[in-house]
Amino acid sequence: MSIQIGDTLPNVELRVMGADGPEAVNTADLFAGKKVVLFAVPGAFTPTCSAAHLPGFVVKADEIKAKGVDSIICTAVNDVFVMDAWGKAQNADNITMLADGIGEFASALGLELDLTGIQFGKRSKRYAMIVNDGVVELLNVDEKDFEKSSAEAVLAAL
């Protein structure tokens, strides 16, 4: 069963790129006391994710933060080096690129996507959440495309 509105995010240790290299972060710490927009993509550098999904949040970051959001976090089942390189390639300076390297977070959320049939392995479904102090206030999961989880959809919900 997937996470629902009103649920608290599971505490999982993930990775971000710090000034001195990869750093472990706990989701409980990332979301504690903050209003956060979290969105997930099936994979860094993939067509829709790179051409439209992440760029929408890059362009709308200031508008989203102006609505009282403390941080915007993008996650994918990729390693920290890939997430860091993708963020740099997309000029995502205002977005935390959160690496769910082995898919533990996606699985704990119940939002895992099995793409082994096309040699992609286990990934994350495409979704967006508004999370307030670790509690899910909005959950938009896309089955196709990225209409529900787009920056525009999140902005409209704020």
List its traits.
158 residues; five-stranded mixed sheet; two-stranded antiparallel sheet; globular
Question: In brief, what are we looking at here?
Answer:
This protein is α/β, with parallel strands linked by helices and 158 residues long.
Structure write-up:
The structure is a single chain. This protein is of the alpha/beta class. It has a single domain (7-157), classed as Glutaredoxin, CATH 3.40.30.10. Helix content is 30%, strand content 32%. The chain has five helices and nine strands; from the N terminus they run ββαβαβαβαββββα. The chain has helices at 27-31, 47-65, 80-89, 104-109, 151-157; strands at 13-18, 21-26, 35-40, 71-76, 95-99, 112-115, 121-124, 127-132, 135-141. The strands form three sheets. Strands 5-4-3-8-9 form a five-stranded mixed β-sheet. Helix 3 (80-89) links the parallel strand 4 and strand 5 (95-99). It is globular. The two termini are 26 Å apart. The mean pLDDT is 92. Its EC number is 1.11.1.27. This is Glutathione-dependent peroxiredoxin. It holds the Pfam family Redoxin.
**What structural class do the secondary elements suggest?**
alpha/beta
- Give the CATH class: Alpha Beta
The CATH topology is Glutaredoxin
Tell the overall outline.
globular
What composes the largest sheet?
A: 5 strands, mixed
Mean pLDDT: 92
From N to C, what is the helix and strand string? EEHEHEHEHEEEEH
Helix content class:
25-40%
> What is the CATH architecture descriptor?
3-Layer(aba) Sandwich
- In angstroms, what is the radius of gyration? 14 Å
Can you say what the CATH homologous superfamily is?
Answer: Glutaredoxin
Count of separate DSSP helical elements: 5
